[in-house]
Amino acid sequence: MINKSIEKRIYLILAAGILVISFAGVFVAMADAPAIIIAFYRMFFTIAVLTPVFIYRKDCRLELFFDRRPVIIGFFLAIHFILWVTAFEYTAVANAVIFIALQPLFTLLFERLWAKEDLRPGIYRGLFIAITGSIIVGAGDLNNLFASIRGDTLAIMAAFFAGLYLFSGRSLRKKLDYFPYIYTVYTYATAFLLIAVIFSGYSFTGYSQTNWLLFIGLALGPTVIGHSVLNLAVRYVPATLVSTTIIGEPVLTSLLAWILLGDKIPPLTIVGGTFIIYGLLYTMRRNKQNKKLANPK
């Protein structure tokens, strides 16, 4: 059991991580490169930044790459990125807001099947409130709902692999230190994305300066900081709780799009965003309460 001060810091770090991840949707919307190229360079530049740290740290050993578990987790992450970025090409933002809410449902399903000890009363209710808010946000453009079956399906599949990636990494995160874990997983994800680009036939070069800046921005912000924070938090709190906080990303992305791109914020986004934030705060509060009941002094 972690003490209160560390737990508070984990929640604050998690909130900051979600804020940084929220830039991903804006950066992807601004890029005009093929989806698989965006996904690859996002991870490639991430590894480029982290490699000097891997070489310097004494707890980073090449033996880590011979464990098949990081290979599997890296594969899940690569598939998630490919599906998520590609979905933006075929479906409306409103649809993506709705279907991203499925991610914690998938994580909850995995935990119910394989890690029942992680489930705590209160998470279900907070999850339901947050998902309701996400549906309200997406309801602002119901005419577009299921307008593109291909894009909607890709978004659902991206949510599935995101939940699988977070859940499958939790047991390994408890055994490995933070940095060796993320570097190994990110390296394998990059390798899988490299193979995907080669088979896709797209060129590795010839993209505008704006695209290269966006690739680097996706690596430094949403990945190096954002996704790494998720991997840090999942060691200390249930994967479902971490996944639930990600539902707040569409609200923050809408705000960032308004500030950076001039996109208007529909009234339903404000209403739904209130539900989402309340659901997240409720889930975290109940999680703390149940920890106290399970571990009385």
From TrEMBL:
Gene Ontology CC annotation, any one: membrane
SUPFAM superfamilies, per the entry: Multidrug resistance efflux transporter EmrE
Domain of life: Bacteria
Keyword Transmembrane applies: yes
UniProt-listed Pfam families: EamA (PF00892)
Transmembrane segments annotated in the record for this chain: 12-30, 36-56, 68-86, 92-110, 122-139, 145-167, 179-200, 212-234, 241-261, 267-284
Keyword line: Membrane, Transmembrane, Transmembrane helix
Start and end residues of each EamA domain: 11-137, 150-283
Key word Transmembrane present: yes
Family: Belongs to the EamA transporter family.
Protein name: DMT family transporter
